[in-house]
Amino acid sequence: MRDAASFSLSNAIREAAHTLTGASADYDPLMRLVDDARFVLIGEASHGTHEFYAQRAQITKRLIKEKGFTAVAVEADWPDAYRVNRYVRGVRNDAEAIDALSGFQRFPTWMWRNADVLDFIGWLRAHNDALSTDQKKVGFYGLDLYSLHASMGAVLNYLDKIDPEAARRARQRYSCFDHYGEDTQTYGYVAGMGLTESCENEVVGQLIELRRRAAEYASRDGRVAEDEFFFAEQNARLVKNAEEYYRSMFRGRVSSWNLRDQHMAETLDALVAHLERQGRHPKIVVWEHNSHLGDARATQMGESGEWNVGQLVRERHESEAVLVGFTTYSGTVTAASDWDAPAERKRVRAALPESYEALFHHVGVPRFLLDLRDGEPAIKGLEEPRLERAIGVIYRPETERQSHYFYARLPSQFDAVLHFDETRAVEPLERTARWQAGDTGEVPETFPSGI
After folding, report:
1. Residue 426 and residue 122: Cα distance in Å, rounded?
2. At 330, phi and psi to the nearest 5?
3. What is the pTM of this model?
4. Burial, 268: exposed, middle or buried (Cβ in 10 Å; 0-12, 13-18, 19+)?
5. pLDDT in tens, the chain (451 residues)
6. Where are the alpha helices (DSSP H) in 94-183?
7. DSSP for 65-85, written as a single string
8. Which of 194, 355, 370, 449 stands the most exposed, by the fewest C-beta atoms within 10 Å?
């Protein structure tokens, strides 16, 4: 049973909410909220919901066209996303958008190899092609650090072309990982537990050497050389941070989570500096999960010592940042039953009664935008901590409360929230038989999340 206070709060939210109807003016209030901010961080409550991807893309298009945003930075590996960056800027041999997405081969492939991302990448290429100068073209970049081996390969490929002797030294340093092949977790375990010498000195040394040669390498062929050096440097920095990340995995969640989000925030800052060196005024849209982009200080995770990208961006850029979250009550989602398992189309359970999602469901508006910065009674009523759902790449409906909910204070976590009451699964470019069949049975219980 819902009490009188809940009914009153639902009514207040209904009064404050901006109903989304599919009209071109739907996001006018959000554009006014953004104003002249340089960073707009747009989240998602799952890694597999069509509405989150599609609406995030619509908002991003308006930010690019109306607010002059210059880059999109996403929760993806740097080298894979940079292939897309080259395509959308017209400097890659990939003929079509679907080819440019071919670099995304690591689980979970559907996060970026899906129909909504494909549509956006095609739009971004067409937008850039219509511009008069390269300087105005919008880039697409990855912030994550899981591409240890691909990034080592990218550094070596770069040096092979520009400085073969430096490439030889880099190969010698990176050969430290050869004993473990592609098994980064085994490396992390034995090195983190002190069972073998780590590769820390080697990866740090490689980054230092590359940076010492920065001026020489970047000056050889104008802007193209500068872009390619930046690509290589960020890969070398990623290798350094990924090496530390995999060692930290066995010291506990807080340590590895913080290293990962710190890396993503540092990559964002490095991108800003790179664009400024090119004489541009960087304005960047960030696409990641709510758990990375909602200010951690307003969540249960923050109380346990975790920070995230949203918190770090707010601390560094203050009023220049706008944080936007998504929520849903029920529907379907593309997710796996275990790490590295095939994509499935799963039924999302109705949200728990004590959650923000359930509260928004009782508002009775199928889709709405809520500005969390205004002083409406509805916003004040949301300040009391409530449960919030987070579905990553793994969805465990049979352990819903334990696996997918945490406490948060929504008005402190985000500047605005978009609620879509009923949502559907994002469509992978490669649909597995299990995805086509839909939710067909019990899900084995393993790790609690996969954000």
Report:
1. 17
2. -160, 175
3. 0.94
4. buried
5. 567 788 899 999 999 999 999 998 999 999 999 999 999 999 999 999 999 999 999 999 999 999 999 999 999 999 999 999 999 999 878 999 999 999 999 999 999 999 999 999 999 999 999 998 877 899 999 999 999 999 999 999 999 999 999 999 999 999 999 989 888 989 999 998 888 899 999 999 999 999 999 888 877 766 668 899 999 999 999 999 999 999 998 877 788 999 999 999 999 999 999 999 999 999 999 999 999 999 999 999 999 999 999 999 999 999 999 999 999 999 999 999 999 999 999 999 999 999 999 999 999 999 999 999 987 888 999 999 999 999 999 999 999 999 999 999 999 999 999 999 999 999 999 988 889 888 734 333 323 334 5
6. 97-100, 115-129, 148-162, 164-174
7. HHH---EEEEEEEHHHHHHHH
8. 194
What is the distance between the alpha carbons of residues 350 and 194, in angstroms, rounded to a whole number? 46
Cα–Cα distance between 284 and 73 in angstroms, integer?
7
Cis peptide before 164 (omega within 30 of 0): no
Measured between alpha carbons, how far is 313 from 296 in angstroms, rounded to an integer?
11
Q: Which of 115, 192, 199, 184 is nearest to 147 (CA)?
A: 184
Q: What is the total residue count of the chain? A: 451
DSSP-assigned letter for residue 182: T
Residue whose pair of structure tokens reads 């508002």 in the numeric block? 363
Task: Give the CATH architecture of domain 1-69+283-451.
Answer: 3-Layer(aba) Sandwich (3.40)
Q: In the 8-state DSSP scheme, what is residue 143?
A: E
Spans of all domains in the chain = 1-69+283-451, 146-261+276-281
Q: Which two tokens stand for residue 51?
A: 């509405």
Instruction: Measure the CA dihedral 232/237/238/241, to 10°.
Output: 170
Quick one: how far is CA 126 from the chain centroid?
23
Closest by CA to 227, choosing from 124, 105, 90, is: 90
Return the closest-CA partner of residue 103 out of 115, 113, 92, 116.
Answer: 113
* Cα–Cα dist 88/101, whole Å: 11
Secondary structure class of 416 (helix, strand, coil): strand
| Residue 34 near residue 40 (C-beta atoms within 8 A) | yes
For 203-231, give the DSSP string: HHHHHHHHHHTHHHHHTSSHHHHHHHHHH
Q: How far is CA 310 from its chain centroid?
A: 11
In degrees to the nearest 10, what's the CA dihedral of 422, 426, 431, 432? -60
Give the Cα separation of 329 and 299 in Å (integer).
20
Bridge partner residues of 422 (DSSP): 330
Residue 120's Cα: distance from chain center in Å? 15
* Three-state SS at 49: strand
